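Hi,

I'm pasting everything inline rather than attaching a file, because the server keeps stripping attachments. The sequence lines come first, and each chain or strand is labelled.
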Amino acid sequence: MTSRLYVRVIQLDLNTPKGHAGTSIRLERGFNVLRADNSSGKSTCLQAIVYGLGLEGMLSAQRSVPLPHSMTDRVTLNGEEVSVLSSCVRLELENAEGRVITVERQVKHPTIKNSLVQVWEGPLLTDPGKYEQSDYFVRRPNAAVHEAGFHHFLAEYLGWELPQVTRMDGSEGLLYLECVFPYFYVEQKHGWSGVQARMPTYLGIREVGKRSAEFLLGLDALGRILERQRLASAASIMESEWQQTLDSLTASATATGLVLSKGPQHVARELPSEAFVAQMHDGSQWLDVDQALSSLEAELSDLQQRPTQVVGQRAAELELELSRSQAELDRNVAGLVALQEEQRELAERRDQLALRVEALEEDLERHKDSVVLQGLGSNQAVSLIADHVCPTCHQELQDGADITSHAMTAAQNVEFVSQQLETFRAMRADVERVLSAIRARADALRQGVASQRTQVRAIKDALVGQNNAPSIADVTKVVATQARRDAIRDNRAAIASLRQRLSDLTASYATNRARLQAVQADQLSGGDIARIEALEAALRFRLAKYQFGSLPPADVDISRETYRPAHEGFDLGFDISASDMIRVIWAYLMSMLSVSGESGGNHLGLLVFDEPRQQETARESYEQLLLQAADEAGNDRQILFATSETSDEIRRMLGAAQHHLVDIPAGSRIIQPRLVPEA
Amino acid sequence: MTTQATVRELFERLNGTVAFGRQPEAIPGDLRISWRLTILCVILNRCRGSKTNLQTLHVLWWATRSRTSRDLFVRWLEGDNRPDDLVVRFDPSLTVTIDLAFGAGLVTWDSGTSVVALTAQGKSVAEAAWSDETVVREERAFFRRLPAHITQKSMRELLEWR
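And the predicted assembly:
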């Protein structure tokens, strides 16, 4: 499906103290020329297209409005300068399906932000009426992906499925419209200084120029890059599923009392049959799940058939076990007692330290208080003997004179006691720490003691029990074996299915790797080579037509690395004249337009050229370019030229070629007062 | 070599004069004069008429000094007195403090009736300390726990009972 964008009307609407002002410029399909004097506002009209579409990010990384003062500050009407109270830009657009929309965006407004774009589903400017209206936002994060983002809407309107591309930081994101539109618009100030002069690299997309060219030309290469990216993310999903499945398998095996044999820790191309096999050791060898199961069954039937040993027979054994268990119990109890003794000592230490800390804290408070109180005394103009002189006998009277003749000052003492406090607090914390460690050990010991006591009691019961009662040990053994067998039987299915999942993953992974290898080949497809060669031929043809002089056109290539015009592996631009650079840009952009159309690319069929500055214009070539453009534009595309050539000159150059001329009278400005606001 | 000899040899080797400085010593916080005078004023300010006799003052002074004594004192006043309570009633350093306070014009001292009374200056010191919540915190909390009136009767019981 071809994508198209036609600009039907460009409207500037200003509100000044002297009333409304602005302009409405109607354009048609095919070749349009906007003729007006220099500095009359024609660049403003072209910039308004960019602004209305929210694409000023392609002109500059700054967030300021890219329109001149006449739209934001002061405008000259009828020779008089008036201030601009508010202003907006409106565009009436049409796409390949003939769907017409009108877009409005504020430039300056007291309340409405210029991040708002209003859209009407209809030709509001050429055929006023009631149309469905929606609001979108622009120049905010996510405007390209959010439902309410204008660029998301615009991409859909244009019929573009923008590709995911890799960013500088390795993440992925959509190719921004700001990266593609530089192929459709050349602005006056900087656009003519180089082919990639204004490709926005600040947006952080890797090889952004290449991606945009691939997209516009519809190269398979882009698809291949995307395929590679998709394969990579599919592989990482497989890896995380591998980890999860492996974790579940390990957990299942462990819960069943089985062990997994070794295997690959990351998803691989194959799963050897000896990897991740759940196994059990039966005392002499490793058995897999099925073998373990049958071994346990055999053991069980054996046990159940054999008459359980009666206590009488086992009495001697039991006596031995009892004395052993008893000895161990006594040992543990003794250990516990020793720990408790240690605990008591430490607790006493801790309490002493606590007392000391408390005393120090109180002492510290007093020293601190006296520092404050001395100051208080002087505030009160009452001496608290801060000057340390006896009021009666006028002898020196230091604090603590009873104990020492060389006492610290209160401030020094505060420091001193604080340090002591720190030390003692640390000691107390240390003791607390050791205490809680000992407590944990004692708890563990206590638990051990309790369970050993139970065991001793069980053995004693067995010994005291009836001579012909079955031994508890034997019964326990049967129960335990049954439990084990049941666990394995229940989990066998789960373990098997998890392992199967791992096997399936390896199969998927193998396919993934094979596809990746195929796609990895960086060679351009046959179709791509053909497209690029067509672009090259088109470029050379036009260069010759426009009388490009710095090099023989045949020596200019399209670089296979960047898809830009190059010579001997270098970008053009370094060693060619300014007017030749203009020719290259014309030729390249026009070639992109024509080749993309033929090769099923995504070009919008739109080109907007703001005239290069006078001194750079190459006059003879200019006529050729205009005629070429008229020819190229046909009915299906739209090319817009802004020029300050005289009316006569333009008419002469264009001759009979099909075109639509918007001729602003010489001497007048584009922005004019209006009686009533538009629409 | 003995330590003395080592040190002597060291000094002979050194050029210039060796100067010794004395390190100041730490003292208990409750020996700070400014603290003592302030506490004295606060105690007196809490008494009826901003004055009291010397005996009561000694008890109150001791009571204020430590957490144990504070708790004990409050318990006694609530009627809970135990046989093993140790009630100290005399602090020698208090008399010196009262002397200094007298010299600084914070209190007046009537030797006939043994009554210590707060002067206007002393009162302003007490109020200034009381209103600043960052100083004498423990003591302030203690005084707030005490009943509004400490009767003579209860003081006598405290002092005379065995």
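Chain A is about 50% helix and 15% strand.

If the labels don't parse on your end, tell me and I'll reformat.
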